[in-house]
Design a protein that fits this description.
single chain, about 675 residues, Immunoglobulin-like, Glutaredoxin, globular
Length: about 675
């Protein structure tokens, strides 16, 4: 049942927006010698391996905007710096992102810092600061990590007095500024550093899942009135005067045309655009209207068609022989079938706006592959045509059902805009009621309880319902019945990511009123329009939350979330609702939910300019997103971070994973580490 519900709600819509940690630079640290004497000069070597298509900024160039690579050594009396940091063979570049001349490294980078050993034991540790960018997507990632060197020192210290040595060290070494939220890497009592592989598996699965949905959408497009009848017509051409090679190229050209559509739109689907499209009210209202229009078109209110003169000109080109003629035949198929495939293709492209450059291309490829395979296979094996069902009213039935599904999915976009701007026009119970009505209409239609404009001929007159239609109707009615308890506050976990959050529910008689309230230090800011699930008490402002955590001597649980984050809602419904997890969040932590897409503008006195992108951050969401990027080098949600009193990360942060036991273990590990560090 759960698999069916997930399929129904995710059809033609991307199933997940996963967390990810971008770490395009991998660092290693070594010294020119492993053993030295007091008074010797030693070179510290910093090397980086860079991911393909990424580049690292060097340590010295005139442009002020990019973050220059720096290695901030902790001052100590056992050494002093000799000369500046040296970058080894960087290349000159005009930076299109920052519009200035810079020096960069590609592939590999190396820096060297010379020091003089003053005493034993030698203590060398510090923190790096750097920035890497890519011109492929225009992304830039700032980073930093702790490092240390282990050099064995022999011989006695020189005669310099401790005071003189300390003064020399302080004069020649930069002072390391305290950081707020940062992973502990070289403390045996602290948690591990952020791992760049944390969510790579989930990201890969999500992309494959999206391609599977696009492939299924391509198969569904074949079962529409303007596509299905063209299969035997097209095959008859190739079995008459065409060749097997031409048939193969026909399928290839169909895939190529749709893939080019995805490639043309891929530059518009980057992270910044994706975040804008997923949270701004205007794009979401446009998407809502587009899905409604697509749905009404499928229901038969009107047809979305391309100009006939344009199609005729393309069709004339198809009369030419050779591969050019085959290409224009494929192009003609794409154009003629647009009234049925346009809404499906549009839905896939809208769903691909998730920040991945390849996603729209791969989505169109998967859709076109499913769309092209039957044409190619039947051209190779024309005898299979006899097994095809005859065209008839059932094709319009498929189209009508798809129209209802499009309309149901449209409300997802309206819900995102409604939550981000707190309009309050689409509460959870209203959304569920709409879905129940649509599901019932689909079921009744499948049972031939009413006709739509495209239902004509003998099939429409015949009231006999096939076993297959009856089975589909039963499934849809079961789905409607499953939704009914949601009207009274049932969690409907299978649909949690697609429905408005529970706090928007007006009529919640199933919620528990016996839960122990969470003890808070003061009234949370923004609590009049931001909420935590399951009756949890907590904060929505970082500074207020960390102050309370210190006062209560508890670790702080940071939830980087978003109104438009589907996976965030799934985590809350399926993981946070687990009694063991809920108890730990309520009793062991101070909880803060930081919405990265909230559009509430703050007073001007609270605005600031980000050190990351040099832009003024005016809203709650912009400031929370900047906090996550600048201090944690991460820009994905959901993202859960546990920190201690000194604002250091206790254990490896947690991303999207629906295993409640693992999440409880994550919370237990953080609590244990907190007690070790702050007894």
């Amino acid at each position: 049942m759960r698999l069916f519900l997930i399929f129904i709600t995710s059809f033609l819509f991307s199933v997940s927006v996963v967390g990810q940690i971008l770490k395009p630079a991998k660092w290693s640290y070594s010294a020119s010698v492993s053993e030295a004497k007091v008074g010797d000069e030693v070179e510290l070597i910093f090397k980086a391996t860079l991911d393909k298509d990424w580049y690292l900024y060097s340590s010295e160039f005139p442009c002020e905007d990019p973050i220059k690579t720096a290695f901030n050594l902790v001052p100590h009396s056992s050494y002093q710096l000799v000369g500046p940091l040296v970058s080894v063979n960087p290349v000159d570049k005009y930076d299109d992102i920052f519009e200035c001349d810079v020096k960069i490294f590609k592939g590999k980078a190396e820096f060297r810092q010379k020091i003089k050993i003053l005493a034993s034991p030698l203590q060398l540790s510090g923190e790096s600061d750097y920035q890497v960018c890519t011109e492929i997507t225009g992304q830039c990632v700032s980073g930093g990590e702790d490092f240390s060197f282990n050099i064995k020192v022999t011989g006695k210290a020189n005669s310099s007095s401790p005071d003189q040595t300390e003064a020399s060290s302080t004069e020649n070494n930069p002072v390391v500024q305290p950081i707020e939220i940062a992973p502990v890497t070289s403390n045996e009592n602290a948690g591990p550093v952020l791992d760049s592989t944390l969510e790579s598996g989930t990201e890969e699965k999500s992309l494959w899942g999206f391609m599977l949905i696009a492939f299924i959408a391509g198969l569904a497009a074949l079962l529409t009135p303007c596509v299905f009848p063209m299969i035997p017509m097209t095959v008859s051409f190739f079995t008459g005067r065409g060749t097997k090679f031409q048939a193969l190229m026909y399928g290839f050209f169909i895939i190529l045309i749709y893939s080019l559509i995805g490639a043309a739109l891929a530059p518009l689907m980057g992270p910044e655009t994706a975040n804008h499209l997923s949270t701004e009210w205007l794009p979401n209202l446009i998407f809502f209207a587009v899905f409604i229009v697509f749905g009404l078109s499928f229901l038969g209110l009107f047809e979305i068609t391309l100009p006939g003169t344009f199609i005729n000109k393309v069709d004339q080109q198809a009369e030419k022989g050779g591969l050019i003629g085959v290409f224009f035949m494929a192009f003609t198929l794409v154009l003629v079938s647009f009234s049925c495939t346009g809404p499906i293709v549009g839905s896939i492209l809208v769903s691909s706006a998730g920040g991945e450059f390849l996603k729209p291309i791969l989505g169109m490829f998967a859709f076109a592959a499913a769309f092209a395979i039957p044409f190619t296979l039947f051209a190779f094996f024309p005898g299979w045509l006899k097994s095809l069902p005859k065209s008839g009213g059932w094709l319009n039935t498929v189209k009508v059902v798809l129209g209802f599904v499009e309309i149901a999915l449209a409300f997802k976009f309206l819900s995102i805009a409604d939550q981000a701007f707190h309009w309050g026009i689409l509460d959870r119970d209203i959304n569920i009621a709409i879905w129940i009505v649509i599901a019932i209409l689909i079921g009744v239609y499948l049972m031939k309880g009413f006709r739509m404009p495209g239902d004509t001929g003998k099939d429409a007159e015949d009231k006999t319902v096939s076993v297959f239609r009856l089975s589909l109707a039963m499934i849809v009615f079961v789905f409607a019945v499953y939704l009914v308890p949601g009207m009274w506050g049932a969690p409907l976990k299978a649909l949690a990511g697609y429905l408005p959050p529970m706090y928007t529910h007006d009529f919640n008689v199933l919620s528990s009123s016996s839960e122990k309230p969470t003890a808070l230090c003061d009234e949370p800011r923004y609590a009049d329009f931001l909420h935590l699930p399951h009756g949890l008490g907590g904060y929505f402002d970082y500074d207020q939350a960390i102050a309370c955590a210190r006062q209560q001597n508890k670790p702080l649980f940071i939830d980087f979330t978003g109104h438009g984050c589907t996976n965030c809602r799934e985590m809350e419904a399926n993981v946070w609702s687990n009694p063991q997890v809920l108890q730990r969040l309520r009793d062991d932590y101070v909880v803060v939910a930081l919405y990265v897409d909230d559009k509430t503008e703050l007073p001007e006195s609270e605005w600031y300019t980000s050190s990351y992108d040099k832009k003024v951050k005016k809203t709650i969401g912009k400031q929370n997103a900047d906090l996550q990027i600048t201090r944690l080098n991460n820009n994905a949600q959901p993202f859960y971070v546990l920190i201690g009193k000194d604002e250091r990360v206790l254990v490896t942060p947690y991303g999207y994973n629906l295993d409640a036991e693992k999440f409880a273990a994550f919370l237990d590990e953080g609590k244990k580490k907190f007690k070790e560090l702050y007894p």
